[in-house]
Amino acid sequence: MNIIEVNDLSKSFGNKNVVNGITMKVNKGEIYGFLGRNGAGKSTFINMLTGIINPSSGSFSLLGEDKIDRVKNRIGVLPDYSSFYDSMTAYNHLRFFSRIQGFNPTKEIIEHTLETVGLEKAKKKKLSQFSFGMKKKLGIAQAIINEPELLFLDEPTSGVDVESAIQIKELIDKLNKNGQTIFMTSHNLNEVEDICTKIGIMKNGEIHSEGTLRELKTTYQSSLTAQIKVGPAINKHARQEIDQFLNNEFQQFDWEDNRLIVNIQEEDDIPVLIRMLINKKIDIYSVHLIEPTLEEVFLERDVAI
Amino acid sequence: MWAISTHEFKNLFKSIKAIVIVVFLTGMSLLVASLAENFANQFGDINTEGHYTAGLSATIIFFGMLFVFILSHDTISSEAQNRTMRFLVNKTSRRSIVMGKALGITLFWLTSVLISLVIVSLVAKQFFFETFLQCSVFLFYGACTALLISSLSKKGSESLFFGIIVSILLPAISFATVFIDTVWIQWVKYLTPYYYMDLSIAYLPIVCLLSIIILTVSIKIFERRDL
Ligand SMILES: Nc1ncnc2c1ncn2[C@@H]1O[C@H](COP(=O)(O)OP(=O)(O)OP(=O)(O)O)[C@@H](O)[C@H]1O
Ligand SMILES: [Mg+2]
Which parts of the chain span the membrane according to its record (chain A) (predicted)? Predict the structure, then answer.
């Protein structure tokens, strides 16, 4: 069963199309990372799925149910732009929100959840005294307290300090290992690269590229790089032969001292290189395959489309 | 739904405005009731429900709508404007949110009327159940209308503006029906609760029905909104 299934979903505000007929699905157990520039329509898309705004057209189902009201107690949501009740404490917020979902948490559960997001010391604080980052953490706490099967997180780490961002990333990973499916957006590509099992890149209201990290990287136009450390002494003749071979087969290459750097198309090119070097009696000290970062993939995609 | 209604109920009791209004309501009831008591002592027994509860009934008929609107006009509009609503709508159906709020507001007014009536009953030495029913149903209508205006408004200031206009227009038009014969004004009479307040309590179900229709419309409007 697909945990999220979206069919030709669109949203326009006035005559401005913000989401243009997105069709996609998310499988159970995935951490789906949704990328895109500011204003691409990511939050608008999430807000439609979570019942915050109404779609202009199209349909979707969550947890196999197309009447979303029926599964609202099985999902958790951190919306993008939202606010809390200023006069209520963090503890009371969690209790109130859980009850709305039809779940009556014990004191231990509430305290444990606050601890999970690092807010145990602010339990009795009113929200008017919370910083932006603390509110973000409470937002995550209210989304995860009921152990939802499906979790929507719109920029869970934006605005929090470095250490907290790492903790949140680890938390998402842990929740996922416990069986939760997660749909998140982020502008922090390192984080997405670390934890997301599938990535969608959105531009102008459409999903332009989608796939696992590996799939996105292998279709990356500027391909992979092999970095080979060779023995110090290469005679002039051998060097010329090697350069000639590389010129014919790979075009783009470079020498940095005794390091040979070659742009290759696929992993299978590496044995070809090694065989050639061995034939020329070159000593090989180490071979590294360098993949493009998600950031490079993202930037290239974003410009290309 | 219950969590939302409890939240609404408690919040109303926490606000200063609400306390002032309840004190005013009780004060008026008590004042008129004790006048009635003096009157009864001087002119023999006129121990009827009307005399003791005139203060409460009149206050509610003239100011009830206004009170309900002042306290609850923004229950949806402000939550939508400052986006606390975003945390509610992803957790439960919009219908439950509106119904929960209607219930919470109505319960708040039932409690307030009950407090006033209990105090009056201490003077009169009897409890006026009919008045309690009438006032409750009237205020239920008020709560539903406040929710309608709130779900139509984008901002708290907007719902306050329309709320005050409606809470003045509704009684004004209803009273105008007594003097003006124009057909549409006569029709309006049947849609507002004022006309039925003068009749026997057997007519109260009609007011309840009107309120439920207004509530249903509010739910439909709220369901179509982007938050
Ligand atoms: N309620 C609204 N009315 C009109 N336009 C809106 C509304 N909400 C969003 N938009 C527009 O829709 C576009 C997409 O906004 P959205 O918030 O979905 O982007 P996003 O991808 O989440 O961006 P970010 O990375 O900045 O969070 C923007 O151009 C925004 O101006
Ligand atoms: Mg966004």
Answer: none
Cβ of B15 under 8 Å from any chain A Cβ? no
Beta bridge partners of A151: A76, A182
Q: Considering chain A, tell me which residue range(s) the CATH 3.30.70.100 domain(s) occupy.
A: 222-300
Side chain identity at residue B2, one-letter code: W
Q: Domain spanning A2-210: which superfamily?
A: P-loop containing nucleotide triphosphate hydrolases (3.40.50.300)
Task: Report which ligand 1 atom has the smallest distance to the Cα of B226.
Answer: 1
pLDDT of B40 strictly over 90? no
Output the CA A16–ligand 1 centroid distance in Å.
10
Q: In a mutational test of the pocket of ligand 1, which residue from A10, A11, A13, A17 has the highest number of ligand atoms less than 8 Å from its CB?
A: A13
Ligand (nearest to CA of A187): 1
Compute the distance from residue A43 Cα to the ligand 2 centre, in Å.
4
Q: Tens digits of per-residue pLDDT, B48-102?
A: 666 777 778 888 888 888 999 999 999 999 999 999 999 999 999 999 999 999 9
Task: Name which of B86, B88, B99, B224 to mutate to probe chain A: the one with the most chain A Cβ atoms within 10 A of its Cβ.
Answer: B86
ipTM value:
0.88
CA distance between the termini of chain B = 19
Q: How far away, in angstroms, is A47 Cα from ligand 2 center?
A: 9
Burial of A177 (0-12, 13-18, 19+ CB in 10 A): exposed
CA distance B82 to A273: 62
CA distance A63 to A164: 30
Q: Chain-centre distance of CA A61, in angstroms?
A: 22
Q: Is domain A222-300 classified as CATH 3.30.70.100?
A: yes
Are the beta carbons of B90 and A51 separated by less than 8 Å?
A: yes
Q: What are the start and end residues of each CATH 3.40.50.300 domain in chain A? A: 2-210
- Joined tokens for residue A100: 């709305």
Q: What is the Cα A123 distance to its own chain's centre?
A: 30
Any B CB within 8 A of A183 CB = no
pLDDT in tens, A103-161: 999 999 999 999 999 999 999 999 999 999 999 999 999 999 999 999 999 999 998 99
